[in-house]
Amino acid sequence: MLAGHWHPVALAAAVCDQPVAARLLDQDLVLYRTAHGVTAAADLCAHRGAPLSLGKIRGGRVICAYHGYCYDAAGRCVEVPAHPAAPIPGKLHLRVFRSIERYGLIWVNLAAESGREISPFPEYDNDGYQKIVVPPLDWAASAGRQIESFCDVAHFAFVHEKTFAVRDPVVPRYHVEATPWGVFSDFTSHAGNVSDPNAAAETWRRVYRVHVPFTAHLVIHFPSGGKMALLNASCPVSARRTRVFPVVARDFGHDEPVADVIAFQQRIYAEDQAIVERQNPEDLPLDLGEEVHVRADLTSVTYRRQLAALGLGRGFTA
Ligand code: FES
Ligand code: FE
Question: Which residues line ligand 1 (CB under 6 A)?
């Protein structure tokens, strides 16, 4: 079921002059760049099954490290060095998947049919916003648990107490709705200034758009008027392994060192990771009777319902 969706698998900038290994839903992939863009294929040479990610790229082709067979951008074998003049068997063809480059990431869809669109990220195409692609983060957790933690509005005062936490744990009533693409939630809270506990309470607004299954777009409206959008695109590497690709776009602070922005995001994510990797059960329970929900959890409850509506959590037979 998940194979029919677009998932991020690598930073676009990381796929340049060498083949790159990635994994999506337990499928090992090789990514390689040619004049036609990035090709994503099963990481398996059609000759003897060596991983092509061990090979190299020359002249717009990926060359297998074992016997040097060359494959073009379409995954077709175009050269067998041992027999340069002999016809090439048609079966010497890589299993190629659909891939697309967007928001500084490579996205792959393992299924042949079209599937849902990738989450919009309008700030990424807005020249007024600075874009910062954070290096991917590897979590030993399911993608559903990770996305749920990203959209949770009741954990700030506890998990992020040392970074940006507001000390007031009360969650005001907020708006959540199910949409054709996932979940929309609009959360406004009033909190003291983190750096100055005596300052008057300020208004923070966070607008979440979760694109099921595993991408979430958050816009934080800071009390100062600045806006920061954060795309949290999560790759379900395996059932309990997630590679998170955070991409920041913001319309303020453009002279702040990029390394500082990245370090701050890494710190926040690490705080969430310490909890989420220890949650049980590891899979996000889609049966709402399995865990307890309060009003603050409305985003999470809606997200779980939307995943169930996609077909997750149901038994499938081939
Ligand atoms: Fe790749 Fe032989 S296994 S060329
Ligand atoms: Fe968090």
Answer: 45, 47-48, 50, 64, 66-67, 69
SS3 per-residue string spanning 229-292: EEEEEEEEEECCEEEEEEEEEECCCCCCCHHHHHHHHHHHHHHHHHHHCCCCCCCCCCCHHHCC
Q: What is the CA radius of gyration of the chain?
A: 22
Q: Residue 71 is part of a domain; what is its CATH number?
A: 2.102.10.10
Same domain for 210 and 75: no
Counting ligand 1 atoms within 8 A of each CB, the residue from 43, 52, 64, 71 with the most, and so the one to mutate, is 64
The CATH number of the domain where 228 resides is what?
Answer: 3.90.380.10
User: Domain of 30?
Assistant: 2-109
| Per-residue pLDDT at 197 exceeds 90 | no
Each residue's pLDDT tens digit, 77-101 = 999 999 999 999 999 999 999 999 9
How far away, in angstroms, is 96 Cα from ligand 2 center?
36
Tokens of 21: 């290994």
Closest-lying ligand to the alpha carbon of 272?
2
Confidence of residue 162 (pLDDT cuts 50, 70, 90): confident
How far is the centre of ligand 2, averaged over its atoms, from the C-alpha of 169 (Å)?
14
Decide if 258 is inside a domain.
yes
> Does 138 share its domain with 78?
no
> 297 and 149 share a domain?
yes
pLDDT class of 196 with cuts at 50, 70, 90: low
Residue with the smallest CA separation from ligand 1 atom 3 is 48
